[in-house]
Design brief:
Layout (H helix, E strand, L loop, with lengths): L6 H13 L2 E4 H4 L1 H12 L8 H23 L4 E4 L3 H10 L3 H9 L8 E5 L3 H11 L5 H5 L7 H4 L24 E5 L1
Parallel strand pairs: 1-2
Antiparallel strand pairs: 3-4
Helix pairs in contact: 3-4, 4-6, 5-6
């Protein structure tokens, strides 16, 4: 298996272990709450792709994850494991670095230094990883593959300089890993 096919979760675990950091993940923050609410709202406890989820649930999950991480990070290093796709889109629209957008969104005024890292891989590796993972929450994505929009997988705005028409630059490319880093 190539490293990029499992880099998001295993990469965050590696960063956490080697840096002495705690790891907080979107998928482990409140899965029972997400499932119970989505079962009630849409009938599908694993729905993470509907407009209902994106509008009513995801913003609160991501905000809670950010606030929790920044609160803990005031005393101890933290690694976050989440795609933050909407936050990335907001940063691109505002032409600001991702870390700046995350800090603004958190609502916390006094925060430790924040670095962001983009870990990416080709869409087909993402698909292979979802198949191998066998998680029920991936079934809607796999049934509708390829995604109707490649933007969540490719997000070209992530590697542009702030002020450039295509959006902010999120950092330098790390050779061989397609990782991108940005500090605020």
């Amino acid at each position: 298996m190539r490293i990029s096919s499992f880099w998001k979760v295993h990469g965050s675990q590696l960063f956490g272990l080697t840096g002495g950091c705690d790891r907080l993940g979107k998928d482990t923050l409140a899965p029972g709450l997400e499932q119970a609410v989505m079962r009630k709202l849409t009938g599908d406890p694993h729905d993470r792709d509907s407009e209902t989820y994106r509008r009513l649930i995801a913003p609160h999950i991501y905000d809670a994850l950010l606030r929790t991480a920044l609160t803990v990070a005031a005393k101890h290093p933290v690694v976050l494991d989440a795609p933050f796709l909407e936050v990335i889109r907001q940063a691109a629209r505002a032409c600001v670095p991702l870390s700046v957008q995350m800090l603004a969104r958190s609502g916390i005024s006094s925060v430790p230094p924040l670095s962001t890292v983009w870990l990416g891989c080709p869409a087909e590796q993402i698909r292979s990883r979802m198949i191998a993972r066998g998680a029920e929450r991936d079934n809607p994505k796999l049934a509708d593959w390829p995604p109707e929009s490649a933007s969540p997988l490719t997000l070209p705005a992530r590697n542009r300089k702030a002020g450039h028409p295509r959006g902010p630059r999120s950092g330098k490319r790390k050779s061989g890993r397609r990782a991108r880093r940005n500090s605020a």
